[in-house]
Write a structure and sequence with these properties.
The protein has 476 residues and is mainly beta. The protein contains 1 helix and 30 strands. It has 3 domains: 142 residues, Galactose-binding domain-like (Jelly Rolls); 142 residues, Jelly Rolls; 130 residues, Immunoglobulin-like (Sandwich), CATH 2.60.40. The radius of gyration is 25 Å and the shape is globular.
Length: 476
C-alpha cells in the first residue's frame, strides 16, 4: 500500500517532547546509551575524533564529533536503515538533539538519503536547507520527510562537522537522542526484496512459501501453498513494535490477498498482542472468520487496538488451513502488507521569546490528538493578563521574526474567537473536528501534522508576541 507524499517540514523544537512520534525507530544506539559509538559509521578527517561524552541532552551519554582539519568534513552516519521495511513514499520522522561550537567558517549539516541497493541514491536533502543553526545550548530538531522512489538500500541519516578554508577553522558537533521513525512496522510486507525475509514460516510437511511474480502491486508477492490434509501452514510478521507500540494504541492493518481452495479449505488472518516471554493479552480473527477470498486480488483493511500487554510487540499471522477431505488444498497469495500505529502525538517546538511577564508563553494540549476525537483542546499559558490572544493553525512549520517573537507556522488559518486573557494568564480552545470548518480551515486527516500557535498583544516592544508552537500529528 503506497503512502501519500508529504512535504518536508522543519521544526526547530524545544527539548520537551510531550509524546514520542508514533512509529518504528530504525536507529540503533541513537542516544549513545551503550556508552560507545557502536552502530554508527564514521568517516574521519586526518585529525578528527568521534567519541562519547557525559555532556548529554538526556540519559547518560551523547557523542562529540570534533574536526580541526580545514577544509574538510568529518562524517558520522546511521546508514542503510530499514531495508525491506521502508517503502517508497513512506512518511519518515527524524529527530535529534544537537549543539555545537564553530570557528572561522566551521558549520554542521544534517543530511538524509534514500539509498539504492548497489550504490547511489534516489533522493537526498540537507535538513534545514543549509547549516544547522546551532548554539552552545542543546536544541531538539524534528523533521517530517518522505522516502524516495527507490529505497532498496534503506535510508541514511548523516551528520557532518565541516570546516572552511580559513586558518583555524574548527567544527565541534554534539549529538544525542537520534531517531529515524517510519510509521510502517511490517518488514518486507510487499515482498519487494524478492524473497520472504522479514517473515516467519511454520510449514506443514509439504507446504511451500515463496516470493513470486504473482503480485498485486510492485514486482513480487508472497505465495503460501498447503497441500496437506488437516493441517495449517502459517506465516507471520512477528513481535513488531516492541517498546514502541503501547497498550490501547490504535493499529491499522491492510493487505491484498487472493486464494484458491479445495473442499473444506480456508485462510485466516489473525492479530495478536504479545506478552514478553510468551502468551498473548489479546487475539482476534480480523474478519471474524475465514477471509472471503476469490481468485482475484482484493484489498482488506482493518482497524483494531493493541491489547493491555504488548511487551512482546504485536503479530500478524496468515494461516492456510485444510480440512479432512481427501484432496483438500489451500493456495494463498499475499501482498502489500502494512501495519501502522494510528496513535497521535504532540511536540513543542520554536522556543518562545520572553514577554512583559519576563518569560515566554507556551502551548500545550489536553485530550486525544485523534481525528474525530471530541476532547482535544489546545492551551496557551504565560500570557500577559488583560491582553488579547488568537489561536492559529498552519499546515507547515516556519521560523520567521514577527513582532517581539517568531512566527513558527505557515499556510495559516485563524481559529477564532479572540480571547481576553484572564488573571490566570491562560486561554484554551476546544478543537473538535467541527471547529475547523467553522473558520474555513481544512480539518485534519489521520497521519497528517498540523502546527498550532497563539499570537497576542503585549505592552512592550512592538506591541505583540507569539507563543512557542505545538506540532500535532493526528492519529485515529
Amino acid at each position: 500500500m503506497k503512502k501519500t507524499l508529504l512535504p518536508t517540514l522543519l521544526l526547530a523544537c524545544s527539548t520537551s517532547l510531550a509524546l514520542a512520534a508514533p512509529g518504528n525507530d530504525l536507529t540503533t544506539n541513537g542516544g549513545f546509551e551503550l556508552g560507545d559509538t557502536s552502530s554508527w559509521v564514521s568517516f574521519p578527517t586526518a585529525n578528527s575524533t568521534f567519541n562519547v561524552t557525559g555532556d548529554s541532552n538526556s540519559g547518560a551519554f551523547a557523542a562529540e564529533l570534533f574536526n580541526p582539519d580545514a577544509p574538510a568534513g568529518a562524517v558520522i552516519k546511521q546508514a542503510n536503515l530499514g531495508v525491506g521495511t521502508v517503502q517508497p513514499g513512506d512518511s519518515i520522522t527524524i529527530s535529534f538533539a544537537a549543539k555545537g561550537s564553530f570557528a572561522n567558517g566551521g558549520v554542521a549539516f544534517a543530511e538524509f538519503f534514500s539509498e539504492i541497493a548497489g550504490g547511489g541514491t534516489s533522493s537526498n536533502q540537507i535538513l534545514t536547507g543549509g547549516p544547522l543553526p546551532l548554539t552552545g545550548d542543546w536544541q531538539t530538531f524534528c523533521f517530517t520527510t518522505t522516502a524516495g522512489s527507490d529505497v532498496s538500500g534503506g535510508v541514511t541519516l548523516q551528520m557532518v562537522a565541516a570546516t572552511g578554508a580559513a586558518a583555524g577553522s574548527v567544527a565541534v558537533l554534539f549529538i544525542d537522542d537520534v531517531s529515524v521513525k517510519v510509521s510502517e512496522f511490517a518488514a518486507n510486507g510487499g515482498f519487494e526484496q524478492g524473497d520472504t525475509s522479514g517473515w516467519q514460516y511454520f510449514p506443514t510437511p509439504n507446504s511451500t512459501f515463496d516470493a513470486t511474480m504473482d503480485f498485486n502491486t510492485g514486482a513480487f508477492g508472497g505465495s503460501l501453498n498447503n497441500p496437506d490434509m488437516t493441517t495449517g501452514a502459517v506465516i507471520k510478521q512477528a513481535n513488531l513494535g516492541v517498546g514502541t507500540i503501547n497498550p490501547g494504541d490504535p493499529i491499522n492493518i491492510s493487505f491484498a490477498a487472493k486464494g484458491d481452495f479445495g473442499i473444506g479449505s480456508i485462510c485466516f488472518a489473525e492479530f495478536f498482542s504479545e506478552i514478553a516471554g510468551g502468551g498473548t493479552s489479546a487475539n482476534e480473527f480480523l474478519s471474524g472468520g475465514p477471509l472471503p477470498l476469490s481468485t482475484d486480488w482484493q484489498t482488506f483493511s482493518f482497524s483494531t487496538t493493541a491489547g493491555p500487554d504488548v511487551s512482546g510487540g504485536v503479530t500478524l499471522q496468515f494461516a492456510a488451513i485444510n480440512g479432512a477431505v481427501s484432496g483438500s488444498f489451500a493456495n494463498v497469495s499475499i501482498d502489500d502488507v502494512t501495519i501502522t500505529s494510528g496513535a497521535g502525538s504532540t511536540m513543542n517546538y520554536c522556543i518562545a521569546a520572553p514577554n512583559s511577564t519576563g518569560v515566554g508563553a507556551v502551548m500545550s494540549s489536553t485530550g486525544t490528538p485523534g481525528v474525530g476525537a471530541q476532547d482535544f483542546a489546545i492551551q496557551a499559558s504565560g500570557l500577559p493578563v488583560g491582553s488579547f490572544a488568537l489561536f492559529m493553525v498552519g499546515t507547515e512549520s516556519a521560523n520567521a521574526p514577527s513582532f517581539n517573537g517568531r512566527q513558527c507556522i505557515s499556510n495559516v488559518c485563524r481559529l477564532g474567537p479572540i480571547f481576553s486573557v484572564p488573571a490566570s494568564g491562560v486561554v484554551s480552545r476546544d478543537l473538535p473536528d467541527s471547529v475547523y470548518s467553522m473558520f474555513g480551515c481544512a480539518p485534519p486527516i489521520v497521519g497528517t501534522s498540523y502546527f498550532f500557535q497563539a499570537v497576542y498583544r503585549d505592552s512592550v516592544g512592538t506591541g505583540g508576541n507569539w507563543t512557542d508552537a505545538l506540532c500535532v500529528q493526528f492519529g485515529q
